[in-house]
TrEMBL record:
The name this protein goes by in its record: Fe-S protein
Annotated keywords: Membrane, Transmembrane, Transmembrane helix
Transmembrane portions of the chain: 6-25, 37-55, 67-86, 93-114
Amino acid sequence: MDFVHLALRYLHLLGFAAVFGGWLVSLLKHKFDFNNAMLYGIATQLATGIVLYGLASADGDANHAKLGVKFLLALLLGVMIAIPVWKKREKVAAGHFYATGALIAVTAGVAVFWT
Ligand code: HEM
């Protein structure tokens, strides 16, 4: 794995930390507000993920079903996170909040457990 690939994978993990960390901070404050850490985190996941997908395809070892599912989940998360942040909503509905956290965890689970 060359340096560019490793650097992208590293940024992908930092993006995961940002989106999930931002959500956890809001959970622990009992605020149910979305924040810029989550917005920048999911944007990082989509950007680095798509390039990582391209690199894996070029190497001929991309799991297209797995990465397609991850892409759709991340796209859904992007919409769920970006709209309340852009509209400057003070908080989101509890169902929306917990669904977002669960979907982030499911997406990371797909990354790790779907081999
Ligand atoms: C919320 C969104 C996302 C989360 C939480 C997430 C999480 C992760 C995690 C934890 C890994 C590391 C797995 C491991 O090393 O065992 C990973 C790797 C990867 N992800 Fe994502 N991901 C997300 C979005 C995406 C998207 C949208 C794509 C592109 C379709 C993508 C493509 C990849 C690829 C190709 C790898 C393998 C990297 C490598 O080993 O070189 N990810 N992801």
